[in-house]
């Protein structure tokens, strides 16, 4: 099917989806969960084809692992859908309603966005995740996954469509772009007539390409060059524990710490312990002259290091003269994702919270908490690092917009 | 000054603006209001140069009128700034704060967007309006007005900068692009490093150009192909009164009605009265066959008529068989701005409110009310017709974003 036609059908479907009752939406999602499990064999077979193709193309083991589905992983995906059923549906809430002096009642009501375009990379679980969150909020979705996972994605989407039909709901609620060419992706990014919002999920290259090419409004999700700043009054053990967690608990994630900033007055006390801990965990440190002086294994940092999201056992480190310098350095180099201060100083804690220009700013906690589940949203469609519409972890509410509903009795403007 | 450098300085300024207290911001705005009045002569002289240039270039009278400043209009602009002072500043509000099971306190705080880029056409009052709203919410602003108003805008911005300096606040809070070439405007639309949001204000051509060219996130503001639907149970006098107001009270505005939709069962009763009223007011009607049958002056409508924002004494009209057909026709042709139903039927009123996909949906009231002042926001930076971030009239809150602030005591993720 042509993209243009998909867009038209998805838009038509979205007009019906916004009318669906909450129980009907939940019943559909439960059918999807059931049918995913019932069709495990079919999904695994399709996934096998993707894996074979990946091996032929010498895909690295780590990517093959992300692509690979197993019986357990499919159970996990189905369980994820059931968790979305349990979440509260934000659609329909009237957030405010006020009477104006002229008698008009003006209310603000939460409604679906319409048609959401998702552009993502290889993991097939995103296909089901994205559908279930979009559907729960009454949106149609056009999915453009990676070509690496095309067999798996096709199988998953066919099961979803079948599940919707079983419940007399339009299968046009979800489309998968089978043509994974760049040209078609570019067209999708400019399909303003039918797509209301684009959400790219993936590496920095993918996100940049969408931001550069899209004319459809984009919610930019997250590359994270996250910082931990150790203030002069920090509890040293807490600082080491937070850095260890933020850098090493999981490497390839956007909320991992990539850069350390240390106040000069605590450097002598905290740096040896930090460097030992990092070395013991096989983590390379790229530091400025002061940091280098503490350990010969510290690699001299170049300017680019402070702007790099390593997603690896590497961390940059810099010593600063004051909290003001720390804040300036962080605001200049961060991607606006998550930053933390470790401090015992009340004023510095408040200053850091106020002046750091990022989606999530922490006092005395690991940046690894920036996550929809950890924030208590029950689900996450991505982490926004831009400032429009949604900032930080995005749950169901980020997939809705509002409209004004106005009750009158014949008012005309004087 | 180069655009790039302006961007850098505006970004730096925005870091300071977000720290300004509410009283300091208000004092600055009051100084601006005072200095605008004190410098009336200087502003009028600059404006005279723009007007002379306009006349040389054979600018139409209506545009010359929009460009023209008078002593009274400058008083009005200053009064507008004072009204912004009186508004509540949304910055700093913590919208929610919850404790998670692990003891983390997670709060959502309203903060400035950062640097806002405004791209607009000839009216010089927008220069002061946009500055005062952006400044009130702690944002820096880069203004790109039309070349037609360059002398007036330069005078106004120099007065604003001077007013800020008098209060020891950075004059980099506002920049005016003196280079009004298309090339520089295009560069501004792609200055992602420094500009957080673009707000275009002007005609359909300007808005389209920004949406097509920008890589910076855009808040699309409003062209309005607004509809009034007259349901079969409508009060006929109310219908005529609402159409008269929505179409004719002011012609060149985005919330004016451009298209009528009439249920077939009321056509016989309402159309003669409507056509008489429109004819008496010199308004051309472009209608389908049914409408044409009522009056020989009705011009046959072509398909494009139903999608046209006339901004003139012209209205399109169509008769439909049912409310479902009306909703489908409106959703297919509207620009998602404002639509109204006139009805006595409870179920139809609810159906229209639920199913029309526009920023503002009215029952028994004129579409002319879609406006920040009429909605009680006290000010308006524009009317958003897109679904991300803000939809409908945008007041101060639309010029803010949120960030998560997290208070911990050493939490690390298990």
For this entry, give a set of tags:
homodimer; about 425 residues; alpha/beta; seven-stranded parallel β-sheet; four-stranded parallel β-sheet; 16 strands; globular
Biggest chain pair interface: A-B, 67 and 67 residues
The ordered H/E elements of chain A are HHHHHEEEHEHEHEHEHEHEHEEHEHEEEE
Number of DSSP E strands of chain A:
16
Q: Which parts of chain A are unreliable, with pLDDT below 50 for 5 consecutive residues or more?
A: none
Beta-strand level of the residues of chain A, as a percent range?
A: 15-25%
**Rg calculated over all Cα atoms of chain A:** 24 Å
Describe this structure in words.
2 copies of one chain form a homodimer. Chain A is of the alpha/beta class and 414 residues long. In chain A, 42% of the residues lie in helices and 21% in strands. Chain A is built from 14 helices and 16 strands. The first copy, chain A, has helices at residues 3-17, 22-38, 40-56, 61-67, 71-86, 125-136, 150-166, 182-189, 204-213, 236-248, 264-280, 289-292, 323-333, 346-355, and strands spanning 94-99, 105-112, 115-120, 140-144, 174-176, 197-201, 226-230, 257-263, 284-287, 299-300, 314-320, 338-342, 360-365, 382-384, 392-394, 400-411. The first copy, chain A, has a 7-stranded parallel sheet. In chain A, strand 12 (338-342), helix 14 (346-355) and strand 13 (360-365) form a beta-alpha-beta unit. In chain A, helix 2 (22-38) packs across helix 7 and helix 3 runs antiparallel to helix 7 (150-166). Chain A is globular, with a radius of gyration of 24 Å. The N and C termini of chain A lie far apart (52 Å).
């Amino acid at each position: 099917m042509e993209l243009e036609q998909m867009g038209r059908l998805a838009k038509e479907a979205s007009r019906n989806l916004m009318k669906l009752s909450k129980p009907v939406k939940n019943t559909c999602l439960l059918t999807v969960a059931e049918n995913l499990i019932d069709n495990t064999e079919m999904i695994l077979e399709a996934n096998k084809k993707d894996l074979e193709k990946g091996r032929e193309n010498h895909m690295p083991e780590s990517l093959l692992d992300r692509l690979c589905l197993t019986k357990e992983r499919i159970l996990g995906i189905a369980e994820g859908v059931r968790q979305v059923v349990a979440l509260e549906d934000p659609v329909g809430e009237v957030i405010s309603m006020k009477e104006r002096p002229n008698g008009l009642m003006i209310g603000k009501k939460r409604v679906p966005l319409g048609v959401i375009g998702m552009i993502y990379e290889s993991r097939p679980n995103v296909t089901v995740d994205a559908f279930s969150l979009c559907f729960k909020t009454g949106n149609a979705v056009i999915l453009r996954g990676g070509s690496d996972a095309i067999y798996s994605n096709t199988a998953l989407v066919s099961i979803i469509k079948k599940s919707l039909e079983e419940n007399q709901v339009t299968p046009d609620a979800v489309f998968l772009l089978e043509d994974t060419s760049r040209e078609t992706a570019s067209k999708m990014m400019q399909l303003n007539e039918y797509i209301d919002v684009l959400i790219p999920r993936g590496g920095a290259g993918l996100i940049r390409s969408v931001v550069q090419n899209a004319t459809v409004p984009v919610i930019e999700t997250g590359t994270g060059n996250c910082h931990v700043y150790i203030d002069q009054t920090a509890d040293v053990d807490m600082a080491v524990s937070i850095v260890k967690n933020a850098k090493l608990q999981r490497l390839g994630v956007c909320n991992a710490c990539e850069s350390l900033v240390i106040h000069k007055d605590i450097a002598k006390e905290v740096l040896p312990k930090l460097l030992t801990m990092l070395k013991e965990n096989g983590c390379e440190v790229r530091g400025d002259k002061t940091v280098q002086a503490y350990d010969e294994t510290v690699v001299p940092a170049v300017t680019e290091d402070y702007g790099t999201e390593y997603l690896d056992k590497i961390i940059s480190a810099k010593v600063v003269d004051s909290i003001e310098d720390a804040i300036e350095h962080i605001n200049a180099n961060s991607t606006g994702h998550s930053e933390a201060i470790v401090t015992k100083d009340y004023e510095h804690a408040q200053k850091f919270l106020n002046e750091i220009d990022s989606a999530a700013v922490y006092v005395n906690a690991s940046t690894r908490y920036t996550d929809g589940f950890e924030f208590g949203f029950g689900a996450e469609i991505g982490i926004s690092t831009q400032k429009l519409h949604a900032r930080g972890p995005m749950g169901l509410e980020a997939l809705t917009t509002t409209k004004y509903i106005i009750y009158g009795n014949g008012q005309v403007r004087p």
